[in-house]
Automatic annotation (TrEMBL):
Belongs to the UDP-glucose/GDP-mannose dehydrogenase family. GO terms for biological process: glycosaminoglycan biosynthetic process; UDP-glucuronate biosynthetic process. InterPro entries: 6-PGluconate_DH-like_C_sf, NAD(P)-bd_dom_sf, UDP-Glc/GDP-Man, UDP-Glc/GDP-Man_DH_C, UDP-Glc/GDP-Man_DH_C_sf, UDP-Glc/GDP-Man_DH_dimer, UDP-Glc/GDP-Man_DH_N, UDPglc_DH_euk. Gene3D superfamilies: Cytochrome c1, transmembrane anchor, C-terminal, NAD(P)-binding Rossmann-like Domain. It is an enzyme of class 1 (oxidoreductase). Pathway: Nucleotide-sugar biosynthesis; UDP-alpha-D-glucuronate biosynthesis; UDP-alpha-D-glucuronate from UDP-alpha-D-glucose: step 1/1. It comes from Oncorhynchus kisutch (Coho salmon). PANTHER family: UDP-GLUCOSE 6-DEHYDROGENASE, UDP-GLUCOSE DEHYDROGENASE/UDP-MANNAC DEHYDROGENASE. This is UDP-glucose 6-dehydrogenase. Involved in the biosynthesis of glycosaminoglycans; hyaluronan, chondroitin sulfate, and heparan sulfate. Its EC number is 1.1.1.22.
Amino acid sequence: MMEVRRICCIGAGYVGGPTCSVIAQMCPEVTVTVVDVNEDRIRAWNSDSLPIFELGLQEVVDSCRGVNLFFSTDIDEAIKNADLVFISVLSNPEFLAEGTAITDLKNPDRVLIGGDETPEGQHAIQALRSIYEHWVPKNKIITTNTWSSELSKLAANAFLAQRISSINSISALCEVTGADVEEVAHAIGTDQRIGSRFLKASVGFGGSCFQKDVLNLVYLCEALNLPEVARYWQQVIEINDYQRKRFSSRIINCLFNTVTDKKIALLGFAFKKNTGDTRESSSIYISRYLLEEGACLHIYDPKVKAEQIMQDLTKPTPSERHDTATVSRLVTIVTDPYKACENAHAIVICTEWDMFTELDYERIHKAMLKPAFIFDGRRILDSLHDQLQHIGFQVETIGKRVNQRTPFTTSGDRSEMDQPQPLKKNKL
């Protein structure tokens, strides 16, 4: 079998960059070159400010860059010199979770390698296997044919997304029955057949993989004349969309059925903590729903850059365009969470950054307009509910009744106020 001494990875994004950086660190005798057509991205990989934030990534890159790890825009030269080429790691599906990608790469549950059932395909599988065997136990390296490999990737993410949508659907039921979705999740998670992972109710899943892979599965099923299967997986996406809209409607409902010209502090824009990635973040959708209602958003995230937030909020979608001037008028990006909350009617927590549990909420409450609301879309303030209510906050969270709200109405009829109001569809 040919010894692999030079690897080329095409694509310096969230997968290719971290994956090949770890390969370079774990295989010091192998030269790894990561190439991309995006000159700014390659320039960032060669700087002290990497283009992505991932815990531990900076240390990995610093230990190898310029030694056996290189980032370049010279794609042709890198391919010509390579013994093995990754094309965004497509022949080797990744199962990385952003925020823990470096740990996942160094201590994977499994490594899956798919290839053709031909002598050439099997030779390629063994070449790639030899790289991973530098640090991954042989019994954790799974080899399959190409279709099995690719479907395993889609199915894994679809199953995880399905669990999130399942618990989010139960959270809606909990809110109207008086149950607590955290207690329900704990009860069912102790069943060894189910387990406790991915049973955290929230404003919905995001990231680059879950929605994309579920929709790819839907497309495959439709193309292969399996409409019932396609509809089953499509419902996972629809529940996710429903959860985002339901949460947004709840904010509007609690703020006396209008958020027009009201300042709302939105804390967290990344799709999850410990990453700067905003792709398919629920924060984008919730922000858009509130902007459609005329809310003035002051957004804070410790790792997402202001230009990325504005790009996400103004990027056209298949169904509508978003007016840049209107978004610029209604959205303010701040670098201090306390500044975001000053004179705000409400705080909306969309990302579970640890720092949001450590804020001085008494200070924040004093600076807010009254009544002051907190909408915890990530269930990270559960242990603080009593304290927050004592301070004076009206606390709303996912999958649990915290406050018996007293709506601002003269009719005394609570029925309409207790139900989420439909969102208007004003174009930005």
